[in-house]
From TrEMBL:
Record flagged with keyword Nucleotide-binding: yes
Active site residues according to the UniProt entry: 109 (proton acceptor)
Stored NCBIfam families: baf, PRK13318.1-2, PRK13318.1-6, PRK13321.1
Organism: Paracoccus aurantiacus
Binding locations of ATP: 6-13, 132
Name of the featured protein: Type III pantothenate kinase
Pfam family of the protein (one): Pan_kinase
Catalytic reaction annotation: (R)-pantothenate + ATP = (R)-4'-phosphopantothenate + ADP + H(+)
Positions bound to substrate: 107-110, 184
E.C. designation(s): 2.7.1.33
Length: 259
């Protein structure tokens, strides 16, 4: 079975693929000080609660936090007796190379997301990921990542507002009943929700105009279903996009080995 590990700035997702479907998804806070042994105790406990016989013998990692990769590698080597593929490393082949400025670094998650979306929907795509940052990733007709946009994430913006204005409370992200709030919390919620709807629709419109062609929009990330309530710009909401992409990239590398 294949263990897919997707490490973001805030959370790390572990998903197990049995060759036909994902059996389980588990989430833990990203912490570069967490050891391989701690990962295993946590993961083994969750695995023991499933109704499946999970025999992990393959691993692939995508990480936007370089400092966690070492301990994840040790986890795979020590407890699953396998050398993991790490997206972004020279030995991990990509179905289509990013076409960006020479020397530019592209987050592994952005490459994985664009390829996963391309595999499901074809080319000419915009992938909107509501994570710690809100990213807009553009996939060409062949699925290659060709650039994008990075904006502050929703929760990051809320935290900055709370820290920068002492009198403003920290609020939950939700769709307000009305645009015009009649109290401080409702005003903040409206500004965040409708502000991000405006940001998303505006950036997508600019990308489409610059590319001068029809483009599907795929949204992912925990807050995607919430923002879908305020716009019809998304063609699909897919919460498993990154791990789906990791599985595809692993399969691509295994097929390349056999050629």
């Amino acid at each position: 079975m294949l263990l897919c590990i997707d490490t973001g700035n805030t959370n790390t997702v572990f998903s197990i693929w049995d060759g036909e479907r994902f059996l389980s998804h588990w989430r833990i806070a990203t912490d570069h000080t967490r050891t391989a042994d701690e990962y295993y105790v946590w993961l083994e406990t969750l695995i023991s609660l499933t109704h499946f016989e999970l025999d992990i013998d393959r691993c692939i990692i995508s990480s936007t936090v370089p400092r966690v990769v070492f301990n994840l590698r040790v986890l795979c080597n020590r407890y699953f007796n396998t050398r993991p593929l790490v997206v972004g490393k020279p030995d991990c082949l990509l179905p289509a190379q990013p076409r960006v400025d020479a020397g530019a670094t592209v987050g592994p998650d952005r490459i994985v997301n664009t390829w996963a979306a391309h595999a499901r929907h074809g080319g000419d795509l915009i992938v909107v990921d509501f994570g710690t940052a809100t990213t807009f990733d553009v996939a060409d007709t062949d699925g290659a990542y060709i650039g994008g946009v990075i904006a502050p994430g929703v929760n990051l913006s809320l935290e900055a507002l709370h820290m920068g204005a002492a009198s403003l409370p920290h609020v939950d992200v939700t769709r307000p009943e009305r645009v015009v709030g009649t109290n401080t919390i409702a005003c903040i919620q409206s500004g965040i929700f409708w502000g991000y709807i405006g940001l998303v629709e505006g950036i997508i419109g600019k990308i489409r105009a610059e590319r001068a062609r029809p483009m599907k929009v795929i949204a992912t990330g925990g807050l995607a279903p919430l923002f879908e309530q305020g716009t019809d710009v998304f063609d699909s909401i897919e919460d498993d996009l990154t791990v789906h992409g990791l599985r595809l990239i692993y399969d691509f590398n295994k097929e390349a080995e056999n050629v």
